[in-house]
Amino acid sequence: MRCGSGSRLGATMLPSVALFLTLFSSLLGLTTARSPYSEHLHLQPLPHSLLAQFEFSSTASDTSLEEQNFRFFPRSLSQILHHAHTKELHLRFTSGRWDEESWGRRPRNGAREGGTGIEMWAWVDGETESVAYTRWLALVNSLSGLFCASLNYIDSTRTTMPIAAFEPEGYSVNGTHNLHLFHGTLPREVVCTENLTPFMKMLPCKGKAGVSSLLDGHKIFDAAWQSMAIDVRPVQLGGSSARGLQMEQSIDMVLDIERSMRPKDDPIPRPYPQDQMLCDKDKWYNQYGDSCYPVEQPPFPDFTLEQVFGRKLKGTCPLIDDANDKPTSICVAPAGGQTVEIKSAGAYKETKSSGQRCFRMPIDADFDVEFMELITAADYSPPLPKLRVERTISGYGQQRGGLKSVIVNPLDEPVDFVYLETLPWFMKPFIHTLQTTVSSSLSQGEVQTFRAPTREEVINDMHYQPGIDRQRAAHLELKLRMPPQTKLTLTYDFEKSVLRYTEYPPDANRGFDVAPAVIRILPSKPDEPSSYVRSTSLLIYAASPDFSMPYNVIILTSTVIALGFGSVFNLLVRRLVGAHETGPGGGIKERIRGRIAAIRAKLGAKKKTQ
Amino acid sequence: MSPDRGDSPSAGPKGFGPAHIDSKKIVEAVKATRDPPPESQESIDSRRWIVLSFLLIVSLLGLPLWWKTTTVYRSDLPYQSMYHWDAGNACDPVFPLQVVLESPHVPVDQSQKLLNLAQRALDELNAFSAHHLRLVDSTQKSENTVLTVQLLPTDAAASPTAVLQPHATSLDIAFAPSLLPSSSATSSSLASFIADELHNTFLHEQATIAHMIASSPGSHPSSKPLSPEFLALLEDRKTRAMKYSPTYHLTFTLLTPTASPANWEIEAAVHSIINPLVRALSSVSTFTIDTQVQPYAIFSSSVHPVHNEAQSAWFLDQAELGAFINAAEWPLSPSIGEGNTINFLLYVPAPEQTPLYIVPSDATADASSQLHSWLLPQWGSAYILNLPPSALSTGTISAKDLEAPLLSFSTHLLALLGLPEEPHKSLPLRLASLRRTLTLSLLHSSASTLGALARLTQSLPSISIPKPAAASVAHTLSSLDQACAALKIGDFKEALVKAREADIEAERAFFDKSMVGQVYFPDEHKVAVYLPLLGPVAVPLILAFVKEAKAGVACLKALKGV
């Protein structure tokens, strides 16, 4: 256990906090335990929902990778990494929003999640930055084919090279490599089943056994929040000389229980039948039985895994190494007081620890967990997140706008963090308008003593690289420090530039997505890993033209030119004479005038006769 | 303009009358129309000049400029030589094979005599001039030497014997020294024996090349018709062989429908069986080898093996083999990087479905000669490995059990590369033969690509021909010429390199990206888009011209009339 704070906090804090810490320490523990393949599922009921964390990890030694003998490490991915000289890769497919108010702190401290859409970053080897950048492009293009995603759209305008927001996770050999960090995002990308299929293909048990047998695209991408992650990093194997690559695949999701349990053939939500309605017995009119004042359904209803995931959990994947020091493949952390029942035909092993029950599932036998209903959970409060972030667009019109990030520190200790913002090139921020406002979120009495820190005290460091039109994204990195129990408001103005005709995406009137801001919370102790929080993505509306524009432009200019030509030509060619010198009979004009005069004369004659 | 209207009855302001001025009359007089004053000849002429010069500038400068600036770019292609190559008239591929007669134990004059006699005998045997053997003595041995004939005089041999070395390009002929021809002999049994042996060694290749040349356009009908069996063999080889590439990736995959076996001693097996073969093949292409294990990989659901009670075995129908590969679920994506991937699949059936065999094509075959493997043309090879339960229990397939599958894979690898079956004994000779046939087929394919490109660009006048495509065509033509020249001097290695270059460049020219996009913007669209400009400009121009022309004609008539 490298995570030293686990024992200090475990006894006093809420069980789920301890759980996160144990989970994190077990994650770290993997760096010492070197089984070729392991998998793990962690289940935790949240109010009206279920948090499921799948984790698959495989390792391969450098020698086997060089000889290209693959066992559980996927051949396709390894060949791509080798081809692109990539030492460490992090790839995220995320959809939905993590609801901090009701779910609390993010799973794995946010280290295995990405911003909405696709986010990836990698450390690429290269003598110079341009060589490494070419390899990065090769990497995104190859991964695009592998994961059926539009990763190939990560070009220079979506790539940044963050300085402080990311740290390599893997074992690094100093001096031997010239590594460059690249970071790219695709906030517009819709994550869907076609991204899950290649993900499943990489698993040795391929969803036919083990915890991966629960994974179903229909449920995952219907979840309130899900994040699919692939992390490849260099590790040391056993002794000091042998090295290898470790790949971690993880899927974290929050399933809405009621939504997931709808029958497949009738997925339309309907009101509860009368006898299943929960009524407030305190209301006087409920005594007649035909009326009901409905109360909310219990936050922790009764459900089984098969009901929620729509699939059977088919026991342990037999390819897990038994010598692994993490023999549990499924862990359940019921909410306080909730009981859990196991249904399995095979023999399973159970280990209990603080707040959670872990099981070694049987091989070749189904395994199911039933969570019993818990009505009296009024005292349930989720663990506080380290930071809460909210980012919005202010201003109006199609030319100017402002960006406003509200960051809340709910804890009793100051927080140091790095704020990374990647803006598309057509958003031009004015850094001189960057304002910070710190206000206390303490109660009225204590607020008296609060002194708002100045901008210099909040912003410790700043790195800003302005964007270049059509070439580079604007990249802003701030190192900030927030006092305890405060709210920080960060604002700056920006200008939207007008795009060229071909630069608009399909459905341009929907707007342009701006990648989520990444916040890396720096650890207070050097041993601890950093945790991450991401804001939601933004949709900005830029002036979009009428797309029949080129044709209109041609027609308009043609008409103007023709007009000019016509008048000049007529002036040159026509003979100009006095109005009375046009000769008798004149042209069409004269004839029409004559006709009109004749008709008038007739009408006039009639009037006079009357 | 109209000088004849001078006497029109219009009421001019004639009455500046006596004392009283009738204002009404004045207004009427002003309103009254009158003929325009006669135009001076000077202004008529200048107007005519203006109309004419406008018309000339627009039609001679404006229109061509507009057409030129909006037209698609078409570089000049050497159509003449492209069609020339396509028709097969640019190069007659010849294959002069240099064979060295090495006779360290025979006097020089006798060996020279033998050489001449053998050459004469060879020429008599050979009916196909494009592919012929040239015997030279050991002093002329060079890089281009195809085969070395070692003359080994032994007293023991009664009649001469020939042995083809399996790992070298060498033919050893043992003979009694008495068989050496005398200086005055006009024929020798030894010489004709050597000629026969050499002829037979290259007979297969010669027939192949003769067939390839005969089936290419612009060739003269082959003098000797080939047997249908041989044609079927050639066709078979052609359909099975992969497209030639300088690099091949060999991917060995262990597939099993359950979790076991998930381990195989493939490193050792590949090291002992595949590596030596790959080393021998390295002169043709380079090879990379990778292996992977895929448990829980079940064959396609459309394949249903049948259980045979009598033999207590499962059988796969031959017709179902094509559907066996579960491309949707098995991760058999091609390897990254240049080159083709050849897949070798080792399928270990589930214990309840073991043993699994393929139904033999003739029912008489007994159980001992069960079919295990089949070749997937231009893709790879598959092998069903039925392991006894004892071997399965360890979860690891031993290197010994892998021997049979890997041997089957290596035979299939040679077939997939298009290696000719003859001469069966010598792998280097088969490889050299493959190189020559490859050169010829690459020459043919790049020439026909050039022809197709020429026809395409000429049949679609609105397609653009970008500069890179034209450069590729030029490169192809020069490479083709060089390959042809290299063939003439018997430098087959160089010829293959150049033919490969020609093929790559020809494909690059044909599949140039910027050519395709323009097809959908024909000239009608261009005119339609610019019609708002062309119409309003053209109308006054043409009307003015017509008016002037009419007036001119009327003027001429009037002049004649006078």
Number of helices of chain B: 15
The biggest sheet of chain A, with number of strands, parallel, antiparallel or mixed sense and barrel status, is:
11 strands, mixed
Q: Mind telling me the C-alpha Rg of chain A?
A: 33 Å
Low-confidence stretches of chain B: 1-17
In whole angstroms, the N-to-C terminal distance of chain B is 16 Å
Compute the number of structural domains of chain A. Answer: 3
Distance between the termini of chain A: 118 Å
Helix content of chain B: 40-55%
How confident overall, as mean pLDDT of chain A? 84
Report the radius of gyration of chain B as a whole number of Å. 41 Å
Number of distinct helices of chain A: 14
Question: Mean pLDDT across all residues of chain B, rounded?
Answer: 83
How are the strands of the largest sheet of chain B arranged? 2-1-3-5-4
Main location (chain B): endoplasmic reticulum
Subcellular location (chain B): Endoplasmic reticulum membrane
Pfam families (chain B): PIG-S
GO biological process, one term (chain B): GPI anchor biosynthetic process
Describe the structure.
The complex is a heterodimer of chains A (610) and B (562). Chain A folds into three domains: 5-280 and 289-371, no CATH class; 388-540, Immunoglobulin-like (Sandwich); 549-609, no CATH class. The termini of chain A are far apart. Chain A has 14 helices and 26 strands. In chain A, α4 runs antiparallel to α6 (129-146). In chain A, the strands form five sheets. In chain A, strands 6-7-5-4-8-9-2-1-11-14-13 form an eleven-stranded mixed β-sheet. In chain A, strands 20-21-18-24-25 form a five-stranded antiparallel β-sheet. In chain A, β16 (388-394) and β17 form a beta hairpin. Chain A is an alpha+beta fold and 610 residues long. Chain A is globular. By secondary structure, chain B is of the alpha/beta class. Chain B folds into four domains: 1-6 and 39-72 and 527-562; 79-91 and 426-520, no CATH class; 96-209, Rossmann fold (3-Layer(aba) Sandwich); 242-417. Helices cover 47% and strands 15% of the residues of chain B. Chain B contains 15 helices and 15 strands. Chain B has helices spanning 23-31, 41-70, 79-86, 108-125, 189-201, 203-215, 228-240, 266-281, 389-393, 399-417, 427-459, 467-488, 492-510, 513-517, 523-561, and strands spanning 95-102, 131-137, 145-153, 161-164, 170-175, 247-255, 263-264, 286-294, 306-308, 313-316, 340-347, 356-358, 373-376, 380-384, 396-397. In chain B, β1, α4 (108-125) and β2 (131-137) form a beta-alpha-beta unit. Residues 1-17 of chain B have low confidence and may be disordered. Chain A: Residues 1-33 form the signal peptide. Chain A: InterPro entries: PIG-T. Chain A: Keywords: Membrane, Signal, Transmembrane, Transmembrane helix. Chain A: The chain crosses the membrane at residues 553-573. Chain A: One of its GO terms (cellular component) is GPI-anchor transamidase complex.
